[in-house]
Amino acid sequence: MNARAGVIRREAHAKLNVFLRVLGRRDDGYHELESLVLPISLADRISVRPADRLTVSVKGAERLARAVPAGGLNLALVAALALGDACEGGGAAIEIDKQIPVAAGLGGGSADAAAALSALNELWGCDLDRAMLTEIGACVGSDVPALLAGEPVLMHGRGELLAPAPVAPTSWVVVPFAFGVRSPDAYRWWDEGGAPSGPDPESLLAAAAAGDAATLGALLFNDLEAPVSARHPEIAEAKRALLAAGALGAVMSGSGSSVAGLAAHAAHAAELASVFPGALAVSGLAGQPSVA
Ligand code: C5P
Q: Are strands 259-263 and 161-164 parallel, antiparallel or unpaired?
């Protein structure tokens, strides 16, 4: 082990689910999924530095920082403890500069966990490879493996089965809400609703790969959207408003609450964002894996 002395920083990118198909409930209570997970430019900033104990602190916009658990429920801390078990890590001061809305379906907590795993792997000189970090990440949360990948992935299973998926550059407007949605609630509402699973994503994946935004916009879907927006009509309302304002398509991300609108290009995303208070113009990362 070759521990490092200085500060190590990572960007923890949020994600959008370009589609999310729920295939059924499993015996372990989780749901079998299929989803195209797209990392986006919106990111928290994580730093880790050597310390005697393991601590996590959160800063950033007060409203966001206050919503993040700083204790044992913080996913970055859970990830650090899990990595520490696997490689005899020591202490570390983890600092999260929060930019990603919380409980918003944007994977913020999972992104922080993925970034913490990557940074601490280096700080502690663990030298675990991606497959081992992914295995640890899967124990921390279902979205952590996909966010460790640092590139668009087609996700299966509970979230742990991943294949790289080609996605051309895309521009989006993300509309967050003041309320969050707890994932277990969203999945339970899907169970109770008995809705059928969404369509085979083959043509959506082809449109995403080809950069055919008009076709892609028409094909976006999320099986959790109907049950969640039945409880939170603001979601369906934002979707209608985005489409009326000229978005090529709109879909709830993850288990909600945020709604993402697909734009034709970056300037279009900025224009759409200016119409919705609190909305963010972001781009999809076609990118190379950022995690060693
Ligand atoms: O794995 P994670 O902690 O992110 O999951 C949170 C909750 O979301 C789970 O406890 C479960 O209720 C639900 N979930 C699910 N199926 C998945 C992922 C999450 O039912 N594939």
A: unpaired
- Which is nearest to 81 in space by CA: 107, 56, 54? 54
**Catalytic hit among 15, 97, 98, 112:** 15
pLDDT in tens, 114-173: 999 999 999 999 999 999 999 999 999 999 999 999 999 999 999 999 999 999 999 999
Write out pLDDT tens, residues 235-262: 999 999 999 999 999 999 999 999 999 9
Which protein residue has the closest C-alpha to ligand 1 atom 13?
184
CA of 158 to the centre of ligand 1 (A): 8
108-123 and 75-87 are packed helices; what angle lies between their axes, rounded to 10 degrees? 30
Per residue in 102-118, pLDDT tens? 989 999 999 999 999 99
67 CA to centre of ligand 1 in angstroms: 20
Instruction: Give the residue whose CA is nearest to atom 15 of ligand 1.
Output: 30
| Helix, strand, coil share of the chain (percent; to 5) | 35, 30, 35
